[in-house]
C-alpha cells in the first residue's frame, strides 16, 4: 500500500506545516492564489519553486490581510488547452483573484483573453516575452489586469542603437536569426536606429545550419555600411563574421547578448573583435538583488541560475503586495489597480523578503505607498504592464568578456521613451 | 455554485470541440482505415484559416478580410479541405504506417511554417483574430459562454448526424469494404483511391471545423496550439472511445479530456504539499497508464464498432442496428 503511506506522509507534513503556520501567525483564514506554470518541464519546476518561496516568506510575515496564502499550483504542460483549462478551474472552482502564469506567451495569451480578462482576475507572468501583449494592452484588451516582470527585447534593441550612436556609426546593416526572437529584435533596432538618424542599409535574415552565408553577407555588404548589428547565435554568428571579414567587411560590430560566447570569440579570433561591442540586460546593481540571491541560496542551497527565477519571485511578491494594498476580499481589478501603489518610486523602499513584506504592510496600513526593491531591481510597470531592465555594454577579452559600460534602469527608460 | 456551472460550461465547450475532431479522425481511421498522423495540421489549417479570414486588418499581418463569422468558419474548413486534397493526392498511395509517417511530417511542416511565416500567421507570437462573435449581445461572461456552448454542441450534433448517415449509407459500406480488403473492392468495380481521398478530405474538413471553433473560442492561435501533442490526444480519445463507432468517438473525447483535466485538478487539491511540484509529471504518468490499460484490456475501445449485415435494403433497419 504505497498510496497509504504517501497519504500519511502527506498528512503528517500537512500537520507540521499548519502547526508551524499557526505558531508563526495565528491566522485562521486562508486566501488562495492560482499558479499555472509548466512544472512538468525541467526548467519550469524551479520557476514554480521560486514562486512558492515568495509565498512562504509572505506567510512567515503573517500572510496577506492576516490570512495565510495558499498557492494552488497547476501544470500547464506548455499546452495552451491544458493551461487555459487549469486557469479556468482556478478562477471558477477555487475563486482565485490573482493568477501567476504562464511562462510561454502562447499559453499566457489565451489565458489572458479567455479567462482572466473576462473574469476580472489579475494576471502576473514571470516570463512571457511576446510583443503581442503590449499591442493587446495598447488596444485596451487587457483592462489593466496584465503584468509581466520580464523585460522585452526592446531593452536590448534600444541599448544596441545607443552603442551605435555613441560609436558614431552613420550606417548599419542588420543580420538577425530567423526566429521569433530575431525577427522581433531586428525590427525594434531598425526603428531605434532610424530614430537616431542612422541609416539601415540592409536587414538580412540568417537561417540556421547553412554551410555558407556568402549570399546573405554579400547582400549586407552591398550597402557599404560603416558597421553591422548582429542578433545571431554563436554558430551561425561565427560563420557569418568570417565570411564578412574575408569579403572585406568592416570590423565595427554591435552584438546582442546571444553572441556573448567563448565559442564565438575563438572561432572568429579575438584580433578581429577589437571593435565589437555587445549588449545585454543586466542584473540590477542594487542591494535587493543581492539579498534575493543570498536568501535563495540559503533556501535551495544553489545559485538562482536559471531562466526566469528572479522574475518569478518578483511577479509573485508584487502580486501579494498588491493584494495586501488592495485590502480584504479585493477583486482582481482592485488588486491590479493597487500594483502602482506597491511599485511607486516615491514610496517607502521595502526589501524582497519576509521583513520587507511586514514593513510594506505597515506603510500601506498607514495609507502610504511602497517601492518594492525586488530580485530584478526596483520594478516599475508601464501602462501596458511591461517592465524595463538595466543593461550593460561588453566587449571580448582573452579570457571572456569585460563590462565596458553599465546602463542604469533610468537611462534605459529614457532610451525607451525616446522611441 | 455559479463557479462550478461556469467551469462545467467551459469544460463541455472544449470537450465538444475536441469531439468534433475525433469524429473527423473516426471517419478516416475508424471507417476507412487511413492512419492520419497529422491531425493537428488540418485542425490548425481550420484555426488559422478562420482567424485570418474573419479578422479586420492588422499591421504587418496578412488578411484583413473581415468576413462575416459563418463565412470565416466555413472558409477555415475549406482551407483544411484544400490542404487535405493536396496532401491526399501526394500521400494516399501510402499505406498504414507509411501514411502515418508522411502525415506526421506534414503536421510538423505545418507547425514550422506557421512559426516562421510571420507575414501570414504572425510567426511564433501567434495571431489574435477577432473578438468572439456576438459577444456584446450577451454581455460577455457566463451567458455568452453558455450561448457559445449551445452553438458548439449544435455543430457537434450536426457532424454526428451527418457521419451516422454517411457510414450507414452505401458509401459507408464502401469505405469499410476498402478498409477490409482494397483488392476485393476494386474487383467489384470501385475506385478505392478516389474514395479514400474523399474520406480523407471529408474527415479533414471536420477537423478544420473543430480548429475553427477552437480558435474562435480562444480568439487566439499560435504555433503552440498545433504541436504534435494534439494529434496524440485526438488519437487517444478515439482509441479509448472505440474506433469505428461515432458514439464511442464522442464519449472518448469527453472521457480523455475529462481525465486530462480532472487529474490535474485533483492532484493540485489532494497531493501532499511536497509533491505539488511533481504533479505535472505524475499527471502524464496517470494519463499514459489509462491509455496503456485500455489498450491492454479493451483494445476495441469502450464502444467497439458493430458490424452489421446490411442487406435488408430498408435504410431504417440498418440505421438502428448500425449504431
TrEMBL record, chain A:
Record's signal peptide: 1-26
BP-aspect Gene Ontology terms: amino acid transport
Keywords assigned: Amino-acid transport, Signal, Transport
Domain Leucine-binding protein: 40-343
Similarity comment: Belongs to the leucine-binding protein family.
Protein name: Amino acid/amide ABC transporter substrate-binding protein, HAAT family
Organism: Shimia gijangensis
From TrEMBL, chain B:
Topology class, membrane: Multi-pass membrane protein
Pfam families in UniProt: BPD_transp_2
Annotated keywords: Cell membrane, Membrane, Transmembrane, Transmembrane helix
Subcellular location: Cell membrane
Taxon lineage: Bacteria, Pseudomonadati, Pseudomonadota, Alphaproteobacteria, Rhodobacterales
Name the record gives this protein: Amino acid/amide ABC transporter membrane protein 2, HAAT family
GO cellular component, one term: plasma membrane
Source species of the chain: Shimia gijangensis
InterPro entries linked: ABC_transp_permease, LivM-like
Coiled coil stretches, renumbered: none
Gene Ontology MF annotations: branched-chain amino acid transmembrane transporter activity
Record field: transmembrane: 6-27, 34-56, 68-91, 142-163, 197-220, 277-297
Amino acid at each position: 500500500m504505497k498510496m497509504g503511506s504517501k497519504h500519511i506522509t502527506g498528512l503528517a507534513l500537512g500537520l507540521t506545516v499548519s502547526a508551524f503556520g499557526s505558531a508563526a501567525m495565528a491566522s485562521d483564514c486562508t486566501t488562495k492564489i492560482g499558479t499555472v506554470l509548466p512544472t512538468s518541464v525541467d526548467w519550469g519546476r524551479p520557476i514554480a519553486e521560486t514562486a512558492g518561496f515568495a509565498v512562504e516568506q509572505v506567510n512567515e510575515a503573517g500572510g496577506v490581510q492576516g490570512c495565510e496564502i495558499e498557492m494552488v499550483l497547476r501544470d500547464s504542460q506548455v499546452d495552451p488547452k491544458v493551461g487555459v483549462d487549469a486557469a479556468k478551474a482556478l478562477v471558477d472552482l477555487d475563486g482565485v483573484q490573482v493568477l501567476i502564469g504562464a511562462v510561454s506567451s502562447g499559453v499566457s495569451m489565451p489565458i489572458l483573453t479567455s479567462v482572466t480578462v473576462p473574469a476580472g482576475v489579475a494576471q502576473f507572468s514571470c516570463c512571457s516575452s511576446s510583443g503581442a501583449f503590449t499591442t493587446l494592452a495598447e488596444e485596451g484588451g487587457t483592462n489593466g489586469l496584465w503584468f509581466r516582470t520580464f523585460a522585452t527585447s526592446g531593452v536590448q534593441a534600444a541599448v544596441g542603437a545607443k552603442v551605435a550612436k555613441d560609436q558614431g556609426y552613420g550606417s548599419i546593416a542588420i543580420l538577425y536569426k530567423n526566429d521569433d526572437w530575431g525577427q522581433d529584435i531586428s525590427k525594434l533596432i531598425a526603428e531605434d536606429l532610424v530614430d537616431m538618424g542612422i541609416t539601415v542599409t540592409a536587414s538580412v535574415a540568417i537561417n540556421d545550419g547553412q554551410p555558407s552565408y556568402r549570399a546573405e553577407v554579400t547582400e549586407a555588404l552591398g550597402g557599404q555600411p560603416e558597421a553591422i548589428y548582429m542578433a545571431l547565435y554563436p554558430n551561425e554568428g561565427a560563420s557569418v563574421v568570417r565570411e564578412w571579414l574575408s569579403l572585406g567587411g568592416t570590423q565595427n560590430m554591435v552584438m546582442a547578448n546571444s553572441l556573448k560566447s567563448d565559442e564565438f570569440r575563438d572561432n572568429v579570433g579575438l584580433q578581429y573583435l577589437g571593435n565589437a561591442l555587445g549588449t545585454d540586460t543586466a542584473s540590477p546593481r542594487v542591494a535587493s538583488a543581492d539579498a534575493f540571491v543570498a536568501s535563495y541560496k540559503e533556501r535551495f542551497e544553489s545559485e538562482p541560475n536559471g531562466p526566469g527565477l528572479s522574475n518569478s519571485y518578483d511577479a509573485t511578491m508584487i502580486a501579494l503586495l498588491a493584494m495586501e494594498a488592495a485590502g480584504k476580499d479585493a477583486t482582481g481589478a482592485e488588486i491590479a489597480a493597487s500594483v502602482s501603489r506597491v511599485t511607486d518610486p516615491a514610496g517607502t523602499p521595502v526589501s524582497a523578503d519576509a521583513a520587507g513584506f511586514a514593513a510594506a504592510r505597515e506603510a500601506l496600513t498607514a495609507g502610504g505607498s511602497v517601492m518594492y526593491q525586488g530580485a530584478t531591481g526596483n520594478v516599475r510597470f508601464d501602462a501596458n504592464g511591461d517592465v524595463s531592465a538595466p543593461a550593460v555594454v561588453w566587449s571580448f577579452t582573452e579570457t571572456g568578456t569585460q563590462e565596458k559600460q553599465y546602463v542604469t534602469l533610468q537611462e534605459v527608460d529614457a532610451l525607451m521613451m525616446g522611441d | 455554485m455559479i463557479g462550478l456551472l461556469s467551469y462545467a460550461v467551459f469544460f463541455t465547450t472544449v470537450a465538444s470541440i475536441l469531439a468534433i475532431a475525433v469524429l473527423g479522425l473516426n471517419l478516416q481511421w475508424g471507417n476507412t482505415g487511413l492512419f492520419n498522423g497529422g491531425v493537428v495540421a488540418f485542425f490548425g489549417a481550420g484555426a488559422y484559416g478562420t482567424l485570418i479570414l474573419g479578422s479586420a486588418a492588422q499591421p504587418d499581418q496578412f488578411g484583413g478580410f473581415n468576413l462575416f463569422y459563418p463565412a470565416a468558419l466555413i472558409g477555415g474548413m475549406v482551407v483544411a479541405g484544400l490542404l487535405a486534397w493536396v496532401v491526399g493526392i501526394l500521400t494516399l498511395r501510402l499505406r498504414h504506417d507509411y501514411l502515418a509517417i508522411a502525415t506526421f511530417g506534414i503536421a510538423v511542416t505545418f507547425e514550422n511554417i506557421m512559426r516562421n511565416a510571420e507575414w501570414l500567421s504572425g510567426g511564433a507570437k501567434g495571431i489574435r483574430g477577432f473578438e468572439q462573435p456576438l459577444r456584446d449581445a450577451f454581455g460577455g461572461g457566463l451567458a455568452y459562454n453558455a450561448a457559445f456552448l449551445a452553438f458548439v454542441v449544435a455543430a457537434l450534433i450536426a457532424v454526428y448526424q451527418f457521419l451516422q448517415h454517411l457510414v450507414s449509407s452505401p458509401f459507408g459500406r464502401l469505405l469499410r469494404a476498402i478498409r477490409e480488403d482494397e483488392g476485393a473492392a476494386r474487383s467489384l468495380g470501385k475506385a478505392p483511391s478516389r474514395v479514400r481521398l474523399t474520406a480523407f478530405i471529408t474527415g479533414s474538413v471536420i477537423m478544420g471545423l473543430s480548429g475553427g471553433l477552437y480558435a474562435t473560442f480562444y480568439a487566439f492561435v499560435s504555433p503552440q496550439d498545433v504541436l504534435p501533442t494534439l494529434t496524440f490526444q485526438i488519437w487517444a480519445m478515439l482509441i479509448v472511445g472505440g474506433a469505428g463507432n461515432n458514439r464511442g468517438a464522442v464519449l472518448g473525447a469527453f472521457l480523455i479530456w475529462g481525465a486530462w483535466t480532472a487529474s490535474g485538478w485533483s492532484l493540485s487539491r489532494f497531493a501532499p504539499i511536497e509533491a505539488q511540484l511533481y504533479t505535472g509529471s505524475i499527471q502524464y504518468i496517470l494519463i499514459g497508464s489509462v491509455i496503456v490499460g485500455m489498450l491492454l484490456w479493451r483494445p476495441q475501445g469502450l464502444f467497439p464498432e458493430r458490424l452489421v449485415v446490411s442487406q435488408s435494403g430498408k435504410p431504417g433497419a440498418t440505421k438502428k442496428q448500425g449504431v
